[in-house]
Specification:
six-stranded mixed sheet; four-stranded antiparallel sheet; alpha/beta; 10 helices; 287 residues
């Protein structure tokens, strides 16, 4: 069994009931002499889509990895749904309601679409080794219920007909959808999407953008997004935060961020003046 989420201490004043689902407070991560994320304050309200953008090396992926427990912050706090989750391991972060996808697809290639979704459901199941060996009724009942829910999730992302297809044999766009389906299987409150349109052509990108917006609206999810395609960012985001050299340099609506001089300078360099606005972003970094 995974660690129980209620064991995490409640934090005030922000938290459940405050309208804020995720908050970072002076979040910092150093790698030796490199400050990858520098004292970042960020708030994410329930039911919104927040995009974190920035030039290569800005610290976006490091920020994601701290939220999901893959790396621990050097200092600062992460508050999720009123609980301090700073430095908690990934299985604990999943337990409290955070799920993610990755920039590079990380499916189980030789497992079917349904099996991949069932893996994502593991943290919510109660099966034991004894149950797997002796197959009591409650174990088989839970397995059937899990399979039914897995099919429902695949139907949600438009992959129900591919339920028995190995992940490696799915088209690229469908693999992206399957990764989102696996994340949804853990029943998250917050979904982190790391460059969900990476490698897609313009038509696939448009379809994925519509899909994410529809999913957020229908499921009532809160979404934290890293995306290199600036058109996607501007079309999908309720709010945008901009990182540069690990520090937050701007935050606001898509229109405000697009015209922000500091953001334009970060992307396009010094000396860009006048009526310039941000149109496109370079491919993302791994920091």
């Amino acid at each position: 069994m995974i660690e129980s989420a209620p064991d995490v201490a409640r934090v005030s004043p922000n938290g459940a009931g405050s309208g804020i689902l995720l908050e970072s407070r002076q979040l910092t991560r150093r790698f030796g002499g490199l400050v990858a994320v520098n004292s970042v304050d960020l708030t994410l309200p329930h039911g919104t889509i927040l995009s974190v953008i920035g030039p290569n090396g800005a610290g976006k992926t490091t920020f994601f990895n701290m939220v999901t427990g893959l790396i621990k912050p050097t200092s600062g706090q992460l508050i999720f749904d009123g609980r301090d989750i700073t430095g908690k391991p990934p299985h604990f972060v999943t337990a409290v309601g955070i799920a993610r996808t990755f920039q590079n697809i990380r499916l189980f290639a030789n497992m079917t679409a349904l099996e991949n979704v069932l893996v994502g459901m593991h943290s919510r199941l109660n099966g034991t080794v004894v149950g797997a060996l002796f197959r009591p009724p409650r174990t088989t009942r839970e397995e059937h219920e899990a399979a039914d829910r897995g099919m429902t999730i695949l139907r949600t992302v438009g992959l129900e007909r591919a339920w028995d297809t190995d992940a490696k044999n799915l088209p690229y766009g469908d693999q992206r959808r399957l990764e989102i389906a696996r994340a949804l299987a853990s029943n998250p409150k917050l979904l982190l999407l790391d460059e969900p349109t990476a490698g897609m052509n313009p038509q696939e990108t448009r379809v994925m953008t519509r899909f994410i917006k529809q999913l957020q609206a229908e499921q009532g999810l809160t979404v934290l997004l890293i995306e290199h395609d600036m058109k996607v960012v501007m079309d999908i985001s309720d709010h945008i935060a901009v990182l540069d050299y690990g520090s937050k340099i701007a935050e606001g609506s898509p229109a405000d961020v697009r015209a922000n001089p500091r953001v334009i300078e970060a992307y396009l360099g010094r000396g860009v003046t006048g009526r310039a606005t941000l149109q496109a972003e370079q491919p993302s970094e791994g920091v």
